[in-house]
Design goal:
single chain; alpha/beta; Rossmann fold; 2 domains; 6-stranded parallel β-sheet; 16 helices; 43% helix; disordered C terminus
Length: 468
């Protein structure tokens, strides 16, 4: 099997805080050899292309420092102030600056130049996410003939929204430097197809091969999962059990509703708080019988819109607690810090309701972790946004429109009153899918597609779903 060269904005090999993506990619690199390349997270006065090589838990990593201007224009700018809000349907927050676009191009050129000597002729290259959309083209321009795949971990926006991005077609055309493009859901894939057909004159065959300007690229809808067996075991482990007991003791018999989200406007936290407030107002008999624990570690603090969402949530939590708290009860516990996954597993297991209500999300692995952490004899209820990619796989959750405070309030009441029989039925269906389509299924499915030979007529494997 070929060596794997993974390229992503940040490298996360080893350590107890690894997420699902890091777990999968680290496992693949350990099994097949290869290198994980990306930005170190550090800033240098002058970009030299010097590579810092390390080996952590059997995974070889190669990282490079960026200049402060690169970080501001490429990362804080184009990636997180232009593409992120736009791809999450927030064109009101998207900022279009030529310097951002220029910095994005420059940083991707620097990544390509730096990683080039590390790629051997038989290697398979796999680029991750929206930070590096043009990287495939940059590698092709430098003579790389290897198989190169790209996976988008966030939604692909509808054509009319993407059309608000200056030079949108030029950016999308760079994706034709890849051999395979992966999306979490058929919806995101279909949105991509709609854009390239309408705006770029591309043709698409029934097997998912897109042709445009002499280039062909395969499309695949391949939802990422979690390391389900490991997470289930973690939820039964000592740290999780101690966390469970600590949390349950603090509740004094009350039901726990839990939300775990990075502090981001796409996660629907403001709307979640308003829905919970609506529930408290509509069901005063439930007051003092439940607690919402919202864990929201801050992120991207240098971006103004993230500073605003933190301020808004702090004000909302204070208002709701001030209006509804009693001497021995506070309705919202709002925590601005992260926790290790084994601690979170115990929190999930202690929660009667998992509240996962992003306004738009590529997948959302918290939903799958919540399900995996449950006690099979007394599982909790997952309330899930219909606009999260995970909703396509988890129709047994209570699906809600996160913009509707009424729907959130109704779902909370239904979850609290749900019978054990119904809870078990819903959980059993969800855990089966979580186990079957786990993170290694995702990894192997995409790699099989990426490493497949390309026939003259564009025939593809069963992994490629037909497109509309």
């Amino acid at each position: 099997m070929s060596r794997l060269i993974v390229i992503s904005n940040r490298v996360s090999a080893g350590g107890g805080a690894q997420g699902g993506l890091a777990v999968a990619l680290s496992a693949a690199l350990r099994a097949n050899g290869g290198i994980w390349f990306g930005w170190s997270g550090e800033v240098t006065d002058h970009f030299t292309g010097h590579i810092n090589f390390q080996r952590t838990d059997g995974v070889a990593t190669a990282t490079v420092d960026l200049e402060e201007q690169d970080v501001e224009e490429y990362y804080n700018g184009y990636a997180n102030r232009t593409l992120w809000p736009l791809f999450h349907y927030r064109i009101d927050l998207a900022e279009y600056e030529r310097s951002f676009a220029g910095g994005y191009e420059r940083a991707n050129q620097r990544f390509a130049e730096t990683v080039l000597p590390l790629i051997e002729p038989e290697d398979v290259v796999w680029v991750q996410d929206y930070h590096m959309i043009p990287l495939g083209r940059e590698l092709r321009n430098r003579g790389i003939k290897n198989r190169i795949g790209f996976f988008l971990h966030i939604p692909w926006p509808p054509r009319r929204l993407l059309g608000t991005l200056p030079e949108a077609a030029a950016l999308v055309e760079t994706l034709f430097g890849y051999d395979v493009i992966g999306f979490h859901t058929q919806e995101w894939l279909d949105s991509f197809v709609d854009f390239v057909k309408a705006e770029m004159g591309a043709t698409v065959d029934e097997s998912g091969v897109v042709r445009c300007n002499g280039r062909s690229v395969r499309l695949v809808a391949c939802p990422i999962g979690i390391d389900a067996s490991a997470f289930e075991e973690m939820a039964r482990g000592l740290t999780a059990r101690r966390t469970y007991e600590k949390v349950r003791a603090s509740l004094v018999g009350r039901a726990l509703i839990v939300g775990v989200d990075r502090l981001d406007y796409s996660k629907g936290l403001e709307e979640r708080f308003l829905g919970y407030e609506r529930f408290l107002e509509e069901h005063p008999e439930e007051r003092n019988s439940l607690v919402l624990l919202q864990i929201a570690p801050p992120s991207r603090g240098a971006v103004e819109s993230y500073q605003r969402i933190r301020s808004t949530l702090e004000g909302l939590a204070g208002r709701i607690n001030g209006a509804h708290a009693e001497l021995d009860w506070v309705p919202i516990r709002y925590v601005n810090q992260g926790y290790p996954r084994d601690v979170l597993a115990g929190v999930y297991r202690a929660a009667k309701i998992g509240l996962v209500t992003p306004l738009r999300d590529g997948m959302n692995l918290v939903a799958k972790e919540y399900v995996a952490a449950q006690d099979p004899d007394d599982p909790g209820v997952l309330i899930l946004s219909r606009f999260a990619g995970a909703a396509e796989q988890m129709p047994e959750a209570l699906l809600v429109n996160p913009y509707s405070a009424e729907e959130l309030s109704d779902a909370l009441q239904r979850a609290l009153r749900m019978s054990l029989t119904e809870r078990k039925m819903r959980w059993s269906a969800m855990i089966e899918d979580v186990r079957q389509r786990d993170v290694m299924w995702w990894l192997e499915s995409f790699r099989e597609c990426l490493e497949a030979d390309v026939s003259a007529d564009g025939t593809v494997t069963e992994l490629n779903r037909s497109v509309a």
